Amino acid sequence: SDLFGSPGSWSPVWMMAAGLALLCCSRLLRDGSRVSKYTPPIWAAFRTTEERRQWYSVSNLTIQERIEQKSQRAMLGGGQHRIDAQHKRGKLTARERVQLLLDPDSFVEYDKFVEHRCSDFGMGTEDNKFPGDSVVTGQGRINGRLVYVFSQDFTVFGGSLSGAHAQKVSKIMDQALLVGAPVIGLNDSGGARIQEGIESLAGYADIFLRNVLSSGVIPQISLIMGPCAGGAVYSPALTDFTFMVKDTSYLFITGPDVVKSVTNEDVTQEDLGGAKTHTAISGVAHKAFENDVDALLNLREFYNFIPLNNKESSPIRECQDPCDRLVPSLDTVVPLESTKAYDMLEIVSAIADERDFFELMPNYAKNIIIGFARMNGCTVGIVGNQPKVASGCLDINASVKGARFVRFCDAFNIPIITFVDVPGFLPGTSQEYGGIIKHGAKLLYAFAEATVPKITVITRKAYGGAYDVMSSKHLRGDLNYAWPTAEVAVMGAKGAVQIIFKGKGNEVEAEAEYVETFANPFPAAVRGFVDDIIEPATTRMRICRDLEMLANKKQTNPWKKHGNIPL
To answer: Phi/psi at 207 (nearest 5 deg)?
Structure first.
């Protein structure tokens, strides 16, 4: 009754199955000569163990040869002739840049064998397939600290972004966010790969999204080492710091030809989007370096100042500079005449460990200085008015420059030291029409929002609303000091007297009275708006001591999804 029969018996179904099996085996044995020499025929199971071992070793050797061949092709990028052309332009290749940036033998490459998937416009031929495509990605170490890197390869389709290119970059960005390590992008690309159409644009959006999600979680640094045009420019714009190389790097939305056709303006690549333009006029880039080697070595140095992520502290360097060192030169750095300028950089360098100050955006909005230094081996962010330029007044560009830096320091647990010598906000129709109210509020917002240790030193003038903005005690400054030369007031004596005593008597006497009353640190000190009036020579000692005391500071803001900073 059982169709398959009982065990050991031969039912009709079992007999049919056996017949079919015999038929198949006979055909395989008969056609064995037609089986690929790389694929073992069915009767290979009957070979000896030694024969099987020999067959497998030959197969593995063939795969190994293919791996080595692909690896060699990947190392050459677009080919030796394109590498030579890159060198003639004074530029390193993508791989040379990675090797120079990272510690020796620390680079671990990802996706070396990935190739683009486009078959249109002749892209599907073997001649147009390059292992790794147009970007080198992976992770390595800078002075022993983990970092993720992507380096666009201009020798492969001009470094243009394909779907595979974007996939590789997105992968390392995802992993960097997962493990909490910074991302450095070495940009050298002609833009989107036109042959791939919308897939290339989608790739840019994937990268932009990851830039935004990583913002404030891990540091992101862009180094522009060649062209960066069109939609590609928005990724560097979303990162924390953007550096450029003089004469070889360009950033612009539309190139000179498009500008000419639309606005009839004649402009060169350098004038439109070169390093000088973006470090001195637009403020898009933070600094420019002489060449590829100089840029990469400076980037290694810069990396030592920043933490790996927003949950860690910056690296601490062993300090040979005594934390209680007095700086007598500071006692005379501020001129006796309140209208005479001096260089705030002298003060910053004098108090920093070993006079080491990494200034950012030195050629943009020169009336304010920002950058990183160390105090007793610990990284600090420095913000200071620069009396040498526009008397240190705050304007639109200075406010935006300072605000973005303050917010980075706050996001990554870096204490902020502020040096104040500000006569107010810069007056004029150009500032008012440009939105100084809105832009000035950005700096105010940034200082007020910050919960990291904040130490402020008023060296001379602190007038009007600018006094409030520059990390005053009212914005939760932790320690606020004034030098004996400090003047904390609503405005300068001459302007105040013209308003208060206009037409009411001797303005010279009134001005002297105003100076005696307000042009000194006592009005702020007696009200507790400054914690102490200190001798300038003791500034370094005081700051080092205070930073040690504030190391375990815990402060939070009211819960919110996010604030609505006046953008």
So the answer is: -70, -45
